[in-house]
Design goal:
The protein has about 45 residues and is mostly helical. About 50% of the residues lie in helices and about 0% in strands.
Length: about 45
């Protein structure tokens, strides 16, 4: 099931941006995104 939640503060934005890091933790083939770029693009 998918839940759509509005990002209301910087804590929510940080959790949203860091979700792929938690999802793909331990995957040696993953190249992580630049969090500062994502934050500036989304906020």
């Amino acid at each position: 099931m998918v839940h759509i939640v509005e990002i209301k503060n910087s804590k929510d934005l940080k959790n949203f941006i860091s979700f792929p890091d938690k999802l793909y933790k331990g995957n040696k083939y993953r190249v992580p995104q630049l969090h500062t770029y994502e934050k500036s693009a989304l906020f």
